C-alpha cells in the first residue's frame, strides 16, 4: 500500500523486516520444540536462539539464485550459525513457516484493528448520546418521510459497528492460526507437538487440519469481515456527504484554519474525508473477490494464492486501519447544525405529518380508505402550490368535522415521532457511563 494511506505501526507489521523476523521466530521455536522432545540437543537450540539472525538484503541476493524465498532465507540464517545450523528448518516445509508466521502477523494487525474498532465505537456512542433528541428529517428514497433524531441515525451506526466487531472477532480467530504439518498435512516428518508448541508460544491457534497450507476459506471470511467494516464506514460517510450539501447543510466535516477546499473557489468546504472513505472502501471490497478465488486450489496446494495474498492481506488491513482511524476523527469533530435540521423539516410545508392526520381521522371513526382519500388531495396541493399542509387541513370542513384544533395541533407536533427514542437507546445499551 502507498505511504499516503499507511499508518506507521501497521506498516511496520507488514514490513519485509518484520516478515523475516516472524519467519525466524517460527524457525527458532520449532528447534526449541524439537529440543523439548529430545530430538535436538538443547545446547544447539539455545545457540540458535542466541545467534540466529538474517539480513534482508542478503536474502534477496540469495533468492536471485535460488528463486525461492524461504530457501534463500534459511540459507542466510544458516550463515549466522555454526554446526547447529543443520537443525534450522528441520522436518518443516516452507509453508509451515510462511503460513504460521503470517498468522502471527495477522494477529499483530488484528490487535491494532481491535483498538481502532473500540475507539470508533466509543466515538459513535458519544455522538449518539449527544444528539439523542436532536430532531431531524428522516428521508426515504431521498424524500422527506417523518421526523427522527440525529442521535438515532448515529445509534443505528453504533449497532452496525457492534455487529461488525462480532464478525471481525470470529473471522480474526480463524486467521490467527498456524500449521506445522509437513508437505501435505500428514505430520509425516514433524509431530503435532511441534505445531502446538510453536503456535502456543506465538499466541495463535494450531489449525485442526491442513494440507501444505492453511484452508483459505478462513482468509476469505476474514477479508469479508474487513470489507463489511469498510462498507460500514462508507455507509456513514455517504450520509455525511449527503447532509453536507449546500441546500441541506445539516452536518459538516471539521474545516481547519488555513484549510483550502478548492484552488479556484475560495468559499468551498468539501466533505473530502468522507469522499476519501468511499474510494478506499471500493478497494477493500475489490479484494474480497480475490480472497474468494484463493479458496479453490489444486489438490493439497498450489501457489496461485500466494502472489495475491502478498497484496490483499497487507493492503486490506492497512486500509481498514487507516479508514477507522481517520473516520473516527471525522465523526468526533463533525459539526452538527440542529437549527438547519429544523428548518429543513418545514421545507415540505408540513407534509411530513400526513400519516398523523390520516391516523387521527381513522381514530375519529373514518375507514382507512376514506381517510386516505381525504388527505391525499391536500398533500398534492401542498406539493404543487407550496401551501402549508396544516393550513389546508384546518380549512377542510370535512376534516374539521372530525378533528378539533387540539387534535390537529397534536398531529403536527414532531415530539410525537421521537417519544420512543429512550426505549431504543436502552435496547441498544446506549446509556451514559
From TrEMBL:
<dbReference type="InterPro" id="IPR000362">
    <property type="entry name" value="Fumarate_lyase_fam"/>
</dbReference>
<dbReference type="Pfam" id="PF10397">
    <property type="entry name" value="ADSL_C"/>
</dbReference>
<keyword id="KW-0658">Purine biosynthesis</keyword>
<dbReference type="InterPro" id="IPR004769">
    <property type="entry name" value="Pur_lyase"/>
</dbReference>
<dbReference type="InterPro" id="IPR019468">
    <property type="entry name" value="AdenyloSucc_lyase_C"/>
</dbReference>
<dbReference type="GO" id="GO:0070626">
    <property type="term" value="F:(S)-2-(5-amino-1-(5-phospho-D-ribosyl)imidazole-4-carboxamido) succinate lyase (fumarate-forming) activity"/>
</dbReference>
<comment type="similarity">
    <text>Belongs to the lyase 1 family. Adenylosuccinate lyase subfamily.</text>
</comment>
<dbReference type="InterPro" id="IPR008948">
    <property type="entry name" value="L-Aspartase-like"/>
</dbReference>
<dbReference type="GO" id="GO:0005829">
    <property type="term" value="C:cytosol"/>
</dbReference>
<dbReference type="InterPro" id="IPR022761">
    <property type="entry name" value="Fumarate_lyase_N"/>
</dbReference>
<dbReference type="GO" id="GO:0044208">
    <property type="term" value="P:'de novo' AMP biosynthetic process"/>
</dbReference>
<keyword id="KW-0456">Lyase</keyword>
<protein>
    <recommendedName>
        <fullName>Adenylosuccinate lyase</fullName>
        <ecNumber>4.3.2.2</ecNumber>
    </recommendedName>
</protein>
<dbReference type="InterPro" id="IPR024083">
    <property type="entry name" value="Fumarase/histidase_N"/>
</dbReference>
<comment type="pathway">
    <text>Purine metabolism; IMP biosynthesis via de novo pathway; 5-amino-1-(5-phospho-D-ribosyl)imidazole-4-carboxamide from 5-amino-1-(5-phospho-D-ribosyl)imidazole-4-carboxylate: step 2/2.</text>
</comment>
<feature type="domain" description="Adenylosuccinate lyase C-terminal">
    <location>
        <begin position="349"/>
        <end position="429"/>
    </location>
</feature>
<comment type="pathway">
    <text>Purine metabolism; AMP biosynthesis via de novo pathway; AMP from IMP: step 2/2.</text>
</comment>
<dbReference type="Pfam" id="PF00206">
    <property type="entry name" value="Lyase_1"/>
</dbReference>
<dbReference type="GO" id="GO:0004018">
    <property type="term" value="F:N6-(1,2-dicarboxyethyl)AMP AMP-lyase (fumarate-forming) activity"/>
</dbReference>
<dbReference type="GO" id="GO:0006189">
    <property type="term" value="P:'de novo' IMP biosynthetic process"/>
</dbReference>
<dbReference type="InterPro" id="IPR020557">
    <property type="entry name" value="Fumarate_lyase_CS"/>
</dbReference>
Amino acid at each position: 500500500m502507498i505511504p499516503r494511506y499507511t499508518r506507521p505501526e501497521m506498516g511496520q507489521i507488514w514490513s519485509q523486516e518484520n516478515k523475516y523476523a516472524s519467519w525466524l521466530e517460527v524457525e527458532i521455536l520449532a528447534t526449541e520444540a524439537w529440543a523439548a522432545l529430545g530430538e535436538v540437543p538443547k545446547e544447539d537450540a539455545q545457540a540458535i536462539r542466541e545467534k540466529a539472525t538474517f539480513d534482508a538484503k542478503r536474502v534477496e541476493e540469495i533468492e536471485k539464485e535460488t528463486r525461492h524465498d524461504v530457501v534463500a532465507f534459511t540459507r542466510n540464517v544458516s550463515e549466522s550459525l555454526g554446526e547447529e545450523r543443520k537443525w534450522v528448518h528441520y522436518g518443516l516445509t516452507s509453508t509451515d513457516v510462511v503460513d504460521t508466521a503470517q498468522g502471527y502477523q495477522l494477529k499483530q494487525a488484528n490487535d491494532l484493528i481491535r483498538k481502532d474498532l473500540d475507539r470508533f465505537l466509543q466515538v459513535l456512542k458519544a455522538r449518539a448520546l449527544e444528539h439523542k433528541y436532536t430532531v431531524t428529517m428522516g428521508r426515504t428514497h431521498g424524500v422527506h418521510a417523518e421526523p427522527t433524531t440525529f442521535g438515532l441515525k448515529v445509534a443505528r451506526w453504533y449497532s452496525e459497528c457492534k455487529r461488525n466487531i462480532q464478525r471481525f472477532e470470529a473471522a480474526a480467530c480463524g486467521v490467527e492460526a498456524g500449521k506445522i504439518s509437513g508437505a501435505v498435512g500428514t505430520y509425516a516428518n514433524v509431530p503435532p507437538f511441534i505445531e502446538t508448541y510453536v503456535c502456543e508460544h506465538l499466541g495463535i491457534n494450531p489449525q485442526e487440519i491442513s494440507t501444505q497450507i492453511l484452508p483459505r476459506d478462513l482468509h476469505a471470511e476474514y477479508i469479508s469481515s474487513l470489507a463489511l467494516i469498510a462498507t460500514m464506514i462508507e455507509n456513514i460517510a455517504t450520509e455525511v456527504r449527503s447532509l453536507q450539501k449546500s441546500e441541506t447543510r445539516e452536518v459538516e466535516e471539521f474545516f481547519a484554519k488555513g484549510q483550502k477546499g478548492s484552488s479556484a473557489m475560495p468559499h468551498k468546504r468539501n466533505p473530502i474525508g468522507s469522499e476519501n472513505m468511499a474510494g478506499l472502501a471500493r478497494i477493500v471490497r475489490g479484494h474480497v473477490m480475490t480472497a474468494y478465488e484463493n479458496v479453490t486450489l489444486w489438490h493439497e496446494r498450489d501457489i496461485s494464492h500466494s502472489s495475491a495474498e502478498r497484496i490483499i492481506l497487507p493492503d486490506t488491513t492497512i486500509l481498514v486501519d487507516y479508514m477507522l482511524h481517520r473516520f473516527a476523527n471525522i465523526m468526533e469533530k463533525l459539526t452538527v447544525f440542529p437549527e438547519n435540521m429544523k428548518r429543513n423539516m418545514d421545507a415540505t410545508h408540513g407534509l411530513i405529518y400526513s400519516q398523523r392526520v390520516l391516523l387521527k381521522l381513522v381514530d375519529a371513526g373514518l375507514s382507512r380508505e376514506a381517510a386516505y382519500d381525504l388527505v391525499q388531495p391536500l398533500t398534492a396541493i401542498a406539493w404543487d402550490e407550496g401551501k402549508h399542509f396544516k393550513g389546508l387541513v384546518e380549512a377542510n370542513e370535512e376534516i374539521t368535522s372530525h378533528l378539533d384544533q387540539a387534535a390537529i395541533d397534536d398531529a403536527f407536533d414532531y415530539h410525537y415521532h421521537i417519544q420512543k427514542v429512550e426505549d431504543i437507546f436502552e435496547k441498544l445499551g446506549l446509556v451514559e457511563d
